[in-house]
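Whether sequence alone determines local backbone shape is best considered at the level of individual chains. The sequence in question and its structure tokens are set out directly beneath this paragraph.

===
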Amino acid sequence: MERKQMNQMNQTVLMNRLNDIKIGVIGAGSWGTALANLLGSKGYPIDFWVYEEEIRRQIQEQRENRVFLPGVALSEQLMLTGDIRQAVSGKDIVLMVTPSHVTREVARLMAPHMPDTAIVVSASKGIENQTLMTMSRVLAQTLTQIPEAHIAVLSGPSFAREVAQRSPTVVTVASSDLSTAILIQHVFATPFFRVYTHMDVIGVELGGAVKNVIAIAAGMIDGLKLGLNTRAALITRGLAEIRRLGMKLGANPHTFAGLAGVGDLLLTCTGDLSRNHTVGKKIGEGKKLPEILSEMRMVAEGVKTAESVYHLAGNLSVEMPIVSAVYRILYQGLAPEKAVYELMTRDLKQELDEGDDE
């Protein structure tokens, strides 16, 4: 029997026993904790891999992640473990919510224990610095026993705290195999967490990753107190840059008008809960990046992703002036005020890129 047929049969079996699916969640930051808790609240017993022993012990004793998601009572369905083998062995679904810069390392630890029938869902938003790969590509390269049809990505406008508080939230799940996306859609969906399906994996991932870089720029605009006109223009042209890169990599341009594109971009560029916006705002106010990062326990993905996207755009000859400006501010000492002047005095041109009307 061909592997594709076996995959489809496996998905059908899982749909038929939807309530009995075995799930492992890898990563206990704010987003990992919120998603693990969401699944636990649906009645799924979750093997929850928590790297930091202090946090693992705290959640076990107090049913609260006071470091990354304080004030949220966690489900009794979360079974805490520091053993990666226990977290992934025998699982139907493994949810990856690790910071992008450690995803490869953690996946290597998982690989010997992963069943080849498992579905791996990436909820991490970033691009690896060394390889310039998105997280789904890192997982495919590392978990070689997992077919591409069993890799999915979850993205969209979703602050962890608001999901944990059951604020109505809408996201999308993408996979090259529609049956995989539909299965994950049903596993995650609740009356307060609506999930759409998508098949443009690269487009959904790029939207989720690059918006963090644009959010740092938006924060700088707010830190400099340049006003709402400036921020609106920044967000709009930032979306154009994301779309331009996506099209170069074969993404569907319509993806960027959806939840993983403009939806996530707007949230991260304007929301007070955005770590990336916060970093940018502090830079705009005059603080230095090392000082800002030393005060943060949670990861602002856009800081590392700015470097990745800058080099990826250069390799592909894709014009991304806002991303370039953020990179130069973060890593080359460019003053934010000078970056704004340079962006505003670039050569004048038409708004739509060639091919935008297709």
Notes: The first strand starts at residue 23 and ends at 26. The two ends are 41 Å apart (CA to CA). The domain at 209-344 is CATH 1.10.1040.10 (N-(1-d-carboxylethyl)-l-norvaline Dehydrogenase; domain 2). The chain has two domains: 3-199, 209-344.
